[in-house]
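Need residues for this backbone.
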């Protein structure tokens, strides 16, 4: 990235103040706010490509929802991975506690609310392909909608700057209701649970958060939107919940000093540290707090993510679904045509075996692959020549925690872009983007006004950077315009 002070500082300050004022920020350790990094003009995508993604993403959600409720399949297909990855091993134990073995077939009382973000990259050669499914802590829909609103502000307020950095003057903004539709879907689920108990008061939404979380504004934007829709919102960590939850009549989940809970939304729980409380001094890591999660599932409450959903959106499940013939998706209610549509966006994946390692080291084009473990968020991918090094360090019993995936090379933006980070502008000449589409399903049915779709999130980064997270990498917030 080259620093190039080409835009008047007044415009940059105006943009940064808009971002802070609209909650597009991270909390700093001293309780001040820092605006999210963003681009001054949106990325363009062909309308046809975007419409294909709009059609296929709800089908992916339908598939994942049905896989996540197929408990025998989860247990049998993920058991090897669970032995290789201690965290997923713990999740599988919890899943078994919740659902019993194949003979028991217990059904925990929780009602599955699948709030999912499916991340794609539009590969130059192969078209748009899935990078990963996010079924737990799949946040930033509010920031997605705000980024679209921000670019609309730039277009109206600073048209010369906006048009100068726009790739194609004929492009039209892609509508984005990420925040309002996600809130609509959650409110919908909350009211259904409330109705199950014939209660009249305000539904309650519980967000489970990490201690000292810095990504709070994205979360608060969702809460404010839910409050507008008549929902009461509360935030707690697993640690707080471990001594504040109890059971009411008919498997009602009760929260101390609040009352009945209708929706539980986990923004934590995808890594060991979320369940670790040093003062509990446990012999088995994270037992108490992970049992708290299980306790919630044993109640009649709309829940995202269920343990099942987290397992069904794992990298290993993505690999299994990718390797499976489309006809097998019929088991989860997809027609062959729907299954083929889903398959059209899945990128090649390979399990790690001694044969695969041998093939990779002797025959593969190493730049065409990325090595992934089961981790969520940034920092879990290995690229190019580093893959052989990582593979040589793995013990055979760890193989099942990893997978090779076809590396995606998205289109670089034709026009350079100005990225703004910490009120400083930089010129980026090789920007590439990741498109995340949100969906919301409750008890297997779409619950947004857009048939399950709920807006998008665009994160862009220089092509030379591997880590594209807004929060943890070199990513910047962005939005979409469509070209015909």
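Answer:
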């Amino acid at each position: 990235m080259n620093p190039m002070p080409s835009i008047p500082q007044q415009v940059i300050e105006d943009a940064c103040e808009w971002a802070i004022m609209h909650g597009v920020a991270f909390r700093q350790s001293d309780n001040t706010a820092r605006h999210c990094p963003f681009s001054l003009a949106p990325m363009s995508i062909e309308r046809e490509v975007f419409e294909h993604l709009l059609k296929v993403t709800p089908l992916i959600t339908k598939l994942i929802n049905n896989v996540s409720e197929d408990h025998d399949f989860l247990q049998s297909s993920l058991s090897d991975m669970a032995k290789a990855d201690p965290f997923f091993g713990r999740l599988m134990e919890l899943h078994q506690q919740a659902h019993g073995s194949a003979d028991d077939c217990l059904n925990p009382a929780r009602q599955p609310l699948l709030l999912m973000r499916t991340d794609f990259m539009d590969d130059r050669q192969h078209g748009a392909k899935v990078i990963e499914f996010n079924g737990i802590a799949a946040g930033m829909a509010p920031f997605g909608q705000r980024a679209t609103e921000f670019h609309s502000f730039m277009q109206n307020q600073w048209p010369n700057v906006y048009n100068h950095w726009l790739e194609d003057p004929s492009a039209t903004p892609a509508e984005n209701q990420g925040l309002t539709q996600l809130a609509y879907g959650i409110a919908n689920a909350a009211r259904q649970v409330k109705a199950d108990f014939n209660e009249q008061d305000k539904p309650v939404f519980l967000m489970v958060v990490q201690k000292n979380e810095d990504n709070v504004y994205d979360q608060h934007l969702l809460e404010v939107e839910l409050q507008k829709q008549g929902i009461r919102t509360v935030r707690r960590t697993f640690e707080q919940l471990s001594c504040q939850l109890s059971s009411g009549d008919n498997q009602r989940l009760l929260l101390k000093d609040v009352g009945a809970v209708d929706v539980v939304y986990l923004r934590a729980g995808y890594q060991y540290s979320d369940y670790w409380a040093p003062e509990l001094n446990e012999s088995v890591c994270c037992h108490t707090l992970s049992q708290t999660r299980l306790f919630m599932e044993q109640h009649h409450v709309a829940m995202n993510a269920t343990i099942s959903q987290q397992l069904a959106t794992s990298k290993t499940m993505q690999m299994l679904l990718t390797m499976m013939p489309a006809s097998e998706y019929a088991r989860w209610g997809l027609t062959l045509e729907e299954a083929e549509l889903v398959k059209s966006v899945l990128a090649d994946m390979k399990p790690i075996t001694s044969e695969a390692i041998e093939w990779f080291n002797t025959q593969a084009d190493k730049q065409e692959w990325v090595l992934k473990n089961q981790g969520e968020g940034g920092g879990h991918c290995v690229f190019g020549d580093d893959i052989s090094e990582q593979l040589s360090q793995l013990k055979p019993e760890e193989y099942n925690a990893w997978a090779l995936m076809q590396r995606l090379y998205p289109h670089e933006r034709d026009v350079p872009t100005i990225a703004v980070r910490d009120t400083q502008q930089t010129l980026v000449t090789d920007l590439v983007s990741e498109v995340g589409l949100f969906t919301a399903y409750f008890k297997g049915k779409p619950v947004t006004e857009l048939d399950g779709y709920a807006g998008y999130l665009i994160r862009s980064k220089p092509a030379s950077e591997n880590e594209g997270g807004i929060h943890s990498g070199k990513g910047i917030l962005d939005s979409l315009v469509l070209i015909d």
